[in-house]
Design brief:
- InterPro entries: GAF (IPR003018), GAF-like_dom_sf (IPR029016), Pyridox_Oxase_N (IPR011576), Split_barrel_FMN-bd (IPR012349).
- The protein has eleven helices and 20 strands.
- The strands form four sheets. Strands 2-1-5-6-7-4-3 form a seven-stranded antiparallel β-sheet.
- A hairpin with a 4-residue loop joins strand 8 and strand 9.
- Helix 3 packs antiparallel against helix 4, helix 4 runs antiparallel to helix 8 and helix 9 packs across helix 11.
- The protein is elongated and about 85 Å long.
């Protein structure tokens, strides 16, 4: 019988049952201790959490070889890893991934404030030994995950706009992956924030809400360019913590009133965030969560990474194709605006736009809306193109990775949530139309 491979027993590394580690001092004295985390790095390596400078740590620095006993959480089978210490990492994707997982383990075991990751000790796995015993039968393997990725790929291939692509991804998560709560956020690289462009399963959409780079599960996944998964309730990664920190930072009043409530669960027990990337660039984050513990395993993580990769490639492709807009469609006379005029105010300090006293949008998307409304007022225009927005320096789009399509999606959805008196409709590749159901009065405020 061949020896098991690390991928065969990856479920043993989910942190459900603590592992036992045996080390040996320089004088030959053995030491055995429970360890809270054995983390899968790849088929040849694992990482162990370095939390205390204890006897285990002393022994490893004196003698790099050790063994770790793992228990299969479904069959109770025992496995023994023979490992060799290589190095310690104190920052970066591996460290942040372990830190998030350890926070969940600490919360689950009542050890909040005790577990603190000092480093990720990386070991080479030299051999895996199946310990003789009488394990329980292995449950039937989970099925349908590869088919779900295929469905998502097929749906994305049929999409002609970013709106459709975002809807396709969230619908696939709901229809085939059992996800009830999820969202897609895009990166504003200049502001170092991620803004929500689509969500599912929440009481409010939260479109336009923002997460700071490096804050919470979502921000860490974007900053470190790595999946971050938490399997148990932990206050350490609740985004509400980040929101409180943000408000405590003496932000001006105008900034505070332009905060759109984050739509996430109040008490998530499982969270998984994966970066949406293309050509080495972070474009955003795909995020799912659940009110139940242990909802997302390593297979869910693998699947979500594949879906995020498809989404990233689709976004990049759409960005490239909208640079070459289709010929202008035949002009359609807009329906005459009627009824009481809408009062809109613009604050140049952050390009925020208010309808009456209600906040609508800010930033680049706010600057786009203000340009469209002013062009319409001065020239009566209703037809616009992505290209002219990119050439207009007053909007403030970055030179590289401007995510213009994502900003138009954000603007379109925010306008829809405000009653639809102002609408933006796509009229072709790289083209769209401004449609006003009511007259508007524009006011510039300081």
């Amino acid at each position: 019988m061949s020896e098991p491979q690390l991928g065969d027993i990856r479920i043993c590394l989910e942190g459900v049952i603590p592992a036992v580690m045996a080390t040996c001092a320089a004088d030959g004295m053995p030491n055995v201790a429970y360890i809270s985390q054995v983390y899968y790095v790849d088929e040849r390596h694992v990482a162990l959490s370095f939390q205390f400078f204890n006897k285990t740590r002393q022994n490893i620095l004196a003698n790099p070889r050790a063994s770790v006993q793992l228990i299969h959480p479904q069959t109770a089978a025992f496995y023994r890893l023979h490992i060799r210490y290589l190095r310690t990492e104190t920052q970066g994707p591996l460290f942040e991934g372990m830190k998030a997982q350890l926070a969940g383990i600490a919360s689950h075991t009542g050890m909040q404030g005790v577990f603190r990751l000092l480093g990720s000790d990386v070991y080479e796995v030299e051999r895996i030994e199946a310990v003789p015993g009488a394990p329980l039968p292995l449950p039937a393997p989970r099925s349908g995950m590869l088919a779900a990725v295929r469905r998502c790929s097929e749906r994305l291939a049929r999409c002609a706009s970013l709106d459709e692509a975002l809807n396709a991804v969230l619908a696939t998560l709901t229809d085939f992956m059992g996800v009830e709560h999820g969202m897609v956020l895009m990166l504003d690289d200049a502001a170092q924030r991620l803004y929500t462009v689509a969500s599912c399963g929440y009481a409010t959409s939260g479109v336009g809400s923002e997460v700071l780079m490096g804050e919470g599960v979502i921000g860490v996944a974007a900053r470190e360019r790595t999946p971050v998964r938490v399997s148990h309730m932990t206050n350490a990664y609740l985004y509400s913590q980040a929101m409180r920190s943000s408000f405590e930072a003496n932000i001006p009043d105008l900034e505070a009133v332009t905060q759109i409530p984050y739509p996430g669960l109040a008490e998530p027990h499982s969270q998984l965030a994966v970066p949406v990337m293309s050509a080495g660039k972070v474009l955003g984050v795909l995020f799912v969560e659940s009110p139940h513990d242990l909802q997302f395993g390593f297979e869910d993580e693998d699947m979500l990474v594949a879906v995020a990769g498809h989404l990233g490639a689709t976004i990049d492709l759409m960005q490239a194709t909208t640079d070459a807009p289709e010929a202008a469609p035949p002009a359609i006379a807009p329906s005459p605006a009627a009824g009481a005029p809408l009062q809109l105010r613009h604050y140049a300090s952050n390009d925020s736009v208010f309808v009456g006293d209600t906040y609508l949008i800010k930033g680049v998307a706010g600057a786009i809306l203000w340009k469209l409304l002013n062009d319409h007022r001065r020239e009566g225009r209703t037809e616009f193109s992505n290209r002219e927005l990119r050439l207009d320096a007053s909007i403030g789009l970055p030179d590289v990775s401007d995510n213009l399509e994502a900003r138009l999606v954000l603007l379109r959805r925010r306008l829809e949530e405000h009653g639809g008196d102002i609408r933006i409709e796509k009229t072709g590749r790289g083209r769209f139309r401004l449609d006003l159901a009511r007259p508007v009065v524009l006011t510039e405020s300081s």
